[in-house]
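Input chain follows. Return structure tokens only.
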Amino acid sequence: MQQFYAAPVAYLSPRDCNRLSSLDNSLRRNIFLIVAFDLEGTLVDAELFPALGECTGRKPELDDITDRAMRGELDFRASLDMRIRLIRDMSIETARMVAESLPLSHGAEETVSRIKQLGGTPIIITGGFDILADRVAYLLGVEYVCSNRFKVKDGCITGVIDPVVTAKGKAEKLLGLAGWLGINPSRCVAVGDGANDIQMMRAAGLSIAYNGREKVRHAAKVSVKGDDLRLILPYIEEFAVKAEHELLVSQIG
């Protein structure tokens, strides 16, 4: 089973990342709220595959497949295989350079910082890839990441390593981490924009669609539209106050 791993203290390759089992017990006790972020379209103001398509001349096809997958018109795993076929044999170093060029969403740094101030733990759960997720985690100081990984042979992308983080997998990862930390799922927040985020949203106490597709907006408890991720903070702040109060009451009782 694919595991969470601790985000690197420097931008390291996945094999250099410490695993979740290294989490200190004292840190476990201090966590009372988890905020799970999708990556592309949420923490990052871009989609990786269409950006890779700029290098291969297949951007229109990759734009179309990505958009249809995010609207829920294509099975996520099937759409992933379709997209990988269109970039197959691309150098992993070229792909990494493209990933490093993608911008953070406006307000992402302040949003993550505020969540930490509230006593929350931001995490990344994405159907995207580690070459982008690890970099974003490092830039934002996010400790826990779950992402897909490219299969590479002779320095070129040939596929995706199983098991793939699917829509169901995203929900399972959130619930798994919450259980490991002793956090009730009702004290979890899920933020995303695509159809593959819906199951994760249903598993959380608060779900926020950030510039979400229609299906996502209907599934989420809160829908926010704009060009600044900080727009989600009032909802998380209100939720955090309630979660902390409920935690204190449960400890007293």
